[in-house]
Each structure stands twice: as C-alpha cells, then as structure tokens.
Amino acid sequence: MNPGNGVAMMVARRGLGAMFFSGMLIALLGAVLPVWRYHLAPDFALIGHYFLLQNLGVLGGAAGGGWVLGRKGVGFALALGCGLACGALLLLAAFCPPASVWGRLAGLLLMGCAAGVINHAGMHAVTPMYEIHRAATLNLAGILFGAGCLTCVLFLSGAFFFYTAPSLLILLAALPGLAAGVFARTPPAVEIVLPERHWRDAIRDFRTPAAVLFAAILFFQFGNEGALAGWLALFLTQRLGASPATSLLLLALYWAALVLGRTAAQWALSRVRHGRMLAGAVLAQIFGCMALYFTDNLFGATVGVLLTGGGFSVILPLVLEKIGDRFPQFHPAVFNGIFSIAWTGALLAPASLGYFAHFAGIGVVMGLPVLGALMVIVLLLALWLEARLTAA
Question: Measured between alpha carbons, how far is 360 from 358 in angstroms, rounded to an integer?
C-alpha cells in the first residue's frame, strides 16, 4: 500500500471523527436550556435569538473554513474548529444566567463558527473514503454526528444534579480542547487531491435541479430533527411537568433512536424497498409528534420520542444514497453548500419555533415537524420525477 494513501486514510478518519464534535456543538443549546433554568422562567423569544445567532455562526464558519483550509490544510482547520469550540464553551460557562445575555449570544455565535469550520474541513478530509463507498461514508458521518449529540445530552442529563452550569460547560470544553491538540499533529504535507475545477463549476453543479432538491430535502429534514431536539426538553417540562433531568434523558433517548435507526437503515438499504422504508418513516414521524402533543404521561412521551427518532433516522440514509448516486465525483464546494443549507434548517427551525411559541405557546413545537415531514415527502417525489426526466 502506498504510504501516502495510508496517511490520507488516517486524515479521512480524523475528518469523520471531527463530525462527533460538530454534533456535540449543534446539540448543546437544546440540552443546556434546562441547565440554564429556562424551564422555570421561559423566554421563548430570547431562545429564538440563541438559535438564530448559532445559525449565523455556522454559515460564517462554513465560509471562513474554506479560506483556512486552502491556506493551512486540513489538520490546521480541524484544530482551529475544535479550538474555537473550546473557547466558545468556556465563554458560555463565564456568562451562564444570570450573567449578561450578550456574553451568551457571543458564545453561541462563536460556537456556530466552530461547527461551520469543523463541518467544512471534515467534509474535505473524508474524500478518500467517499471515493471507495459514497453512501456508507456519508451515513457514517451522520452516525458520528448523532453520537456527538447523544454524548453531549447524556453528559448533561447524568451530571445535572452534581455540577453547576458553568462546571458542566467547562468539563465539556475539555473534549474539543484535547481534540484540537490531536488534530494539530496531522501531517501538514498530506493534501487531498481533487479534480481541477473552478469554483464557478461548483456553483453550476449546485444550481442543477437535483442539487437544489437535495438541499431543500435536507433543509426540511434537518429542520424537523433540529426543531424537536432544540425544544423537546423544554416541551416535556412545560407540558408534562417532568423534571429537567428526566426531560434530558428523554432527549438522549431521541438521539439514541436517531443513531441506532441510521445504523439499521444503512443495513436495510440493500434489503428493503425504499418506498416502504420512506412510507414507514413518515408515518412514524407523524404519529410520534401526535403522541407527544396529546400525551399526559411519561410512557406516552417515551413512545412518541422513539417513533419520531426512528422515523427521522431513516430519511437521511435514503437521501444520502441518492446524493452519492447523483454526485459520483465528490467536490467539497458542492457538498459543503448542500450541508450548510441543511444545518441552517436544523437551527433556523428551532429559532422560528421560539418566535412562534412566544405568541402561541409551546404547543406549536409539535406542529412544525409534522408539516416538515409532509414537505419532505413532496420534495422526494419531485426528486424521483426529476431523476426519471433526466434519465429519459
């Protein structure tokens, strides 16, 4: 085996591992709200501002990540992203309520920037693996992203009664801080060789109907997942009177259902008809949201969480397999654009819910994922029609 290929695969594995930290950052806000005691004095509009600032940070980090990557390489970009994440968590620890809200807004903006840089560098680093198996690589990245979300929520749930809010964030900051040191030692001489393409060609690819449809599907799907992940803990404490630790445990169960469901979906892709998988996933999402809305006990909430998490988990592997088939020649500019829009949906949806809940109450939290699931069905049908027309 060529030593250069071995180092490239090592860099690819580190790029996949970085998605774990991206998931941890994206899931943190929805899990930390009960830790900040917003279940006692909810300020829905302010929570919407939190998600909006984090969203702006993700977009800014994705744009800046490309500039850093081109000048300093993958290792430096991953180390920078994790270093920014460590700094953001420490800043949030210093400005936990009742400290100034401006410090928290700055910390969330910086945390979003860190996630954007990590996402861009990670998508670039996994190119060697993607060339071997496209769908499996993208799905594995999604699984590791979900594992980071699950780890973050489990930690906050398990340590809720033992540490103060600043202490929890300081302990979490240690993980990306250590990872920054590991990524900084990535061999700088190894670069991922991509086909020579002008950036205008990448934009032209992104303007194709297939790329637009993929981006729209991921926008709504990630929006569904992000809306529930961002507000589930507060919803359960407000509607059911569950304790913050219990609501965080159910949020962890939701992320566990997503991770395990995506693992099972990867196995089922080649064994089950995709139409049946899609129909079952959408029905599970709708019934799960209805169960969460109408339940008045923890058993009903648990069933709803499992149904929604399991239903959401199937959509992403189906879409990623189609992306791999339609874009066999990987280019980070195209994929980073698609996934930046997807992560925008994951944060813009809970931000919108904050503003809706400010006027209509927290019950609207379960309405948006149902509408989003129906929109995903419409877009998938449009994608199927586009593929038929293109083939013809």
Answer: 6
